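To: structure desk
From: M.T.
Subject: fold request, one chain
Message: Could you run this one when you get a chance? Sequence is below, nothing fancy, just the single chain.
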Amino acid sequence: MLVKKMELSVAEDILLALNEKPSEFLKDIRTFAAIKFFEIGKLSIGKAAELAEMSKLDFIELLSKQKISVYNYPPEELKEDLSNIQRARKP
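Reply: Done. Structure tokens follow.
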């Protein structure tokens, strides 16, 4: 797997306000980004877990704690799919 190295500059007062070391802050940023990218459908659960540097199981547990569904199924699509299933069942 190819890895792209990136740099992030953050004002020191931000780290002080958060009471975090740079390494902790970067871990949080990766985790928050992974959650959000998964939530908006830009990353699969596996890729989001990889971005967060977690196992898939640990990432699923984190999503659960954040009250984020691992199914990520938009309500409109679910309603449409259920309607299609009901129509297909009718003789």
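Reply (cont.): The longest helix spans residues 22-39. Let me know if you need anything else for the meeting.
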